[in-house]
Amino acid sequence: MTNIPAYVALTPTGPLVPGKIRRREVGPNDVRIKIRWAGICHSDIHTVKGDWGPQHYPLTVGHEIAGYVAEVGSAVKKFRVDEKVGVGCLVNSCKECANCRAGLEQYCTNGAVGTYGSLDRDGTITQGGYSTEIVVNEDFVLHVPDSLPFERVAPLLCAGITTYSPLKHWAAGPGVRVAVVGLGGLGHMAVQIANALGAEVTVLSQSLRKKEDGLKLGASAYYATSDPATFTDLKESFDLIINTVSAPIDLDAFLRLLAVNGTLVSVGAPAEPMSLRVGSLEAMRRSYAGSSIGGIAETQEMLDFCAQAGIAPIVEIIAADRVNEAWERVLASDVRFRFVIDIDSLKK
After folding, report:
1. Residue 337: cis peptide before it, omega within 30 degrees of 0
2. Are 345 and 319 in contact (CB under 8 A)?
3. Torsion angles phi and psi, residue 59, rounded to 5
C-alpha cells in the first residue's frame, strides 16, 4: 500500500480537508494513473453528506478522472505508460454475470464497484479522484482520444455517459423530439449529445437565465418550467424527455408533455422520493424510466463519439484548495457548467 495526497471528507457535515489515502500496489492486471484532472459531480456531495445512505469515513470522492498512465502491471495489454486515460464511475464488477458479459457492468447482479465509497473485491473501501493517483484494473480504464481537450474530458466520464446512454438506448436521432430538463452539468451534455445524434432538442429549465447557452449548445427551443403556460403549450410535444435535475419534480406535469408512446427518463438522483399518478402513464401509453451511467464499452463509445462530433463539457478549472467553495457553488447552481480540479495544484 502507498499513501498519496488527497482531499478527504472526515464527517458528513464538515469540509473536505487535505490528507492522505492508501492505494494498493500495482497488480498484474492493474494500471496506476497519475491524475491530472478531476471533475466535481453533485453525486460527490450527496455521497459525503449521506443523502444516499451512511458512508465510511475518511472518504475521498470523485468519479470523473483524467490522467496519464504512470505504471502498468505485467499482464496489462491495453495501455502503455504516458498514455492519456480516464476512469469514470466504475472500477470493478464480477465480470461473470449476464449483465457484465453483456457489457452492462453498471448493472452487475453481484454488485458493481463504484470509484469511491464502495466495497471492492479485496475488502477495501474504494477512494476516488480528488487525489494524485489511482490504481484501477485495466478493464475499467478508458482511452482518451487525443482530439478531446484534456482539461475538459473528466466530466464526460459521468455527465457524458449518464446522458449518452439513455439517449442511445431510447434511440434519439432524426425525427425524435427530445426535451432536456435542466441545463446543468448533466443537462448541457444531454443537449449537445442529442443534437449531435440528430434529434430536435428543447430545454425545459426553471428560468430563462441560461437560454442563450442552451441555444448555442444545440437546442432549438427553450422554455421556463416556472411558467404554467409551458405545460399547456407543450402538451404531448415530445417523444423522449431526459430529466437531469437532482431535485424532486412534478412527474405528472412532465409526463403530460409526452406524446403517445413517449418516455420520461430520470438520470438525476434526488435524495427525496417522488410519486406519480398511474393515469399519467396510461393516458398515452407513456413510460417512466431510469438510467444509470453506462458500461465500459459504451463509455468508450461515448468518448469516441464526442471526439468525432467535437463535443466537450464547458468547465471552470479550480485549484484543489477551492474545492469546498466549489461545492457550495454547486449547491447554489452557480457553475457553468462543471467544476474540474487541477490536481497538479494539490499540495504534495
Report:
1. yes
2. yes
3. -135, 130
Tell me which residue has cell 480504464: 141
Task: Say how many C-beta atoms besides its own lie within 10 A of residue 212's C-beta.
Answer: 10
233-to-119, 183, 238, 239 alpha-carbon distances in Å: 48, 20, 12, 16
pTM: predicted TM-score of the whole model, two decimal places? 0.95
Quote the longest CA-to-CA distance of the chain: 62
In DSSP terms, 341 is beta-bridged to: 38, 318
| pLDDT computed for residue 230 by the predictor | 97
Q: What is the mean pLDDT of the chain?
A: 96
Neighbours of 177 (CB within 10 A): 20
DSSP 54: -
Going from the C-alpha of 133 to that of each of 44, 211, 299, the distances in angstroms are: 18, 38, 21
- Amino acid identity at 245: V
Judge whether 297 and 320 are in contact, CB under 8 Å.
no
Q: What is the identity of the amino acid at 5?
A: P
**Residue 269 burial by CB count (10 A; 0-12/13-18/19+): exposed, middle or buried?**
middle
Residues 181 and 223: their CA atoms lie apart, in Å, by 10
Q: Give the strand pairing for 315-319 and 338-342.
A: parallel
pLDDT at 348: 61
Non-local (6+) Cβ contacts of 59 within 8 A are: 8, 9, 47, 48, 116, 117, 125, 127
